[in-house]
Amino acid sequence: MGERLATQWRRAGATEVRVAADLVELADLAESSDGPVVVSGADLVAHTAVLRHLLTSPVGPTVALVLTDAPIDGQTVLREERGQVVEAGHPEQLAGGAATGVFGGAVRVGREDVPALVAAARAVAAGRLPAGAVVDQLFAALTGQGALVFAHRVRLLVAHRVGETSELARADAAVASVDEDRAELRLSVKEKDDFFTTYFVSTWSGYVTKFCARLGLSPTSVTMASVVLAAAAAAMFAAGGRPLLVVGAVLLYLGFVLDCVDGQLARYTRNFSAWGGWLDTMADRAKEYLVYAGLGFGATEAGVRYGWALAIAAMTLQTVRHMTDAWYGVLHDEAARRPRSVGAAGGGIGDRLNAASTRVQADTGSVSYWLKRTVVFPIGERWALISLAVALFDQRIALLAVLTWGVLAFVYTGALRTLRARWMWVPVLDTLDATLHRDDGPVAARLPVLRRPGPLVFAVVAAFGAAVLLVAGLVFRLPAPTVELLGAADSTGGIDSVEWWRWTALPAVLSVAVPVALVVLLLGAAGARAAHNGPLDWLVPAALRAAEFLFAIAVGLIGGAPLWLIFGYLFVLTLHHYDLVARLEKRQPAPPLHAATLGWEGRSAVLAAATIAGMVSVGLVVLGIYVLVLFVASVVLAWVFRDVPPGRRESCG
Fold it and tell me: Does residue 260 sit in the same domain as residue 236?
């Protein structure tokens, strides 16, 4: 059985397969490896596709096979949260029936976790554990070393650990009874997705995925095709007219289908890459905001005075929402990894909300399950709403609908996450480079650190100051009322009406308000550099992002910049910021030229100076082009000229 499994590992993609006589030899083999290492027991019977999926899993560098079989003597059980293995050991070691699965006898260990594997192997070898449980004890020791291990569950395909030779025939029969290719195609579709995607896309996107695979298309090419369709839809929305709006709605739907197909194709062909994942994240946001631009332009051309304003509001809201989503996800992952760091207020409202959420998520297909997944306004629902609203009504209604649902979803998720975060109490930013992901610049680095009353308070004050300045800017841009000063005009030239408040009083106030708002922003930068130890400090990056966006909009309005130019500048900022989010989610280093982007506070200072000088439009254009050039150059340096050796992938039995 061992030789057959070794052959399967080679067919699955392992470049070198070795059989270790004991854990000491395994530790020596792993220590000499220059790439990921796969450790597998000899009792595993599975489809070759199961082994290939484990080898190529993109969820993390270290991934373990997890089964739902009942554990037999000597096997390790585990508990997972959000796809992470947070505890592993003998069944009696996981109190209260907390086990969610059984270790499947195989684990892929990422390059950075190989030292932990070596240490675990030598520790287990020194303990003289029963031979039949070596791979299980090794896995439990690996998790005990602090390695971040993700769970890879087997769906549709077959994998079993065979304890006795008599069980081998039954396991082989189970493997033979499943069509491997058909199961892999079904597995390419996400198991849990949003309502619109599940019932209006995934029901037929698999056929498109199969067709693309036969054509030899790469996931990246499908992603680019999706961008082209979304851009074409945006052009239809900008052109206006009922026929073009309907065509645009159809193109937007088809673009979303391809947006799903690129991921399905990657999973079906096992064609994963860091570049592809980054491009997919960036393309999703670029497509959505191009559509907002098309809607804003079309609404303006149709006579809606505030069409571009709606597009700006929609993009700003969605960007801040995504920032909170990203940081809450990091917070939740850290809480899952460190259950002992949960606050002592067990049984409180946060604890009850967490338990209720877990129950709803487990009740797949129920009304409460779909309501929970839909109310947060995911991308499928956003694109569906835009398509229906623009086809049935017009661009203005589409933008208003997106804003209305977006605000309600933001309030709902923000309230629940705030309560749950207070329960988790994880100083998440202490584990990351908060300077990078806050997008701090050289100005912030030179400011004194303000530690009281906390970074979140300063960040919120900075955003509030920018919001007040925005209100002043809106007043400045609104049509001014005529104020009677000296009565009706006469033939001698008497003054009958003067927009005195707009052209005299308000500019004087604004000339002071812009520097004051900038000072408030800089206070936010100084406060944000304090330790993020509060339960809600994961909101700091999103608050600072809101502060920068609101400040840019405000000075643009005060300086008389066209709304489309303000939108364009913010669009460039979103590319820069989503690059940081993508790197946060993948734990990647800073972009090559990040230090030259000036930081959010530095860019705000440049715009404030341009506004005071009466050149805000020039400032928006020059600064926007500058950031865009740095973004493109960073992409080229990071993905085209990088020299990252792929490393070997070994399997040690």
Answer: yes
CATH code of 395's domain: 1.20.120.1760
Which pair of structure tokens corresponds to residue 237? 């929305």
Q: What is the DSSP annotation of 530-575?
A: S---STTGGGHHHHHHHHHHHHHHHHHHHTT--HHHHHHHHHHHHH
Do 312 and 248 fall within a single domain? yes
- 647 falls in which pLDDT band (50, 70, 90)? very low
Q: Report d(CA 550, CA 555) in Å as an integer.
A: 9
pLDDT tens digits along 269-289: 998 888 888 889 899 999 999
Segment 367-411, tens digit of pLDDT: 888 888 899 999 999 999 999 999 999 999 999 999 999 999 999
Pairing mode of beta strands 77-81, 44-46:
unpaired
Quote the pLDDT of residue 494: 42
In a domain, 649, yes or no: no
Measured distance CA(210)–CA(226) in Å, rounded: 17
Claim to verify: residue 613 and residue 471 sit in the same structural domain: yes
Distances (CA, A) of 11 to 38, 214, 405: 14, 21, 49
CATH (domain of 456): 1.20.120
Enter the tokens of residue 366: 């129920």
The pTM of the full predicted model, rounded to 2 decimals, is 0.88
Q: Using the Cα atoms of residue 325, residue 326, residue 331 and residue 334 in order, give the sign of their dihedral.
A: positive
| Per-residue pLDDT at 83 exceeds 80 | yes
Q: Which of 413, 432, 439, 405 is nearest to 548 (CA)?
A: 439
| Of the candidates 40, 77, 35, 85, the residue with the CA atom closest to the CA atom of residue 59 | 85
Of residues 30 and 574, more confidence is placed in 574
Q: Do 101 and 161 lie in a common domain?
A: yes
Q: Inform me whether the pLDDT recorded for 53 exceeds 80.
A: yes
Check if the beta carbon of residue 555 is closer than 8 Å to that of residue 607.
yes
Neighbouring CB atoms inside 10 A of 648's CB total 14
Paired with 159 in beta bridges are: 46
CATH number for 154 = 3.90.550
Residue 573, CA distances (Å) to 403, 535, 570, 604 in order: 20, 28, 5, 12
- In which element (H, E) is residue 442 found? helix 442-446
Which DSSP symbol is given to 504?
A: I
Task: Based on the fold, state whether residues 36 and 52 are members of the same structural domain.
Answer: yes
More confident residue, 107 or 33: 107
Residue 488 lies in a domain: no
**CA pair distance 470, 476, nearest whole angstrom:** 10
573 Cβ neighbours under 8 A, 6+ residues apart: 548, 549, 552, 603, 627
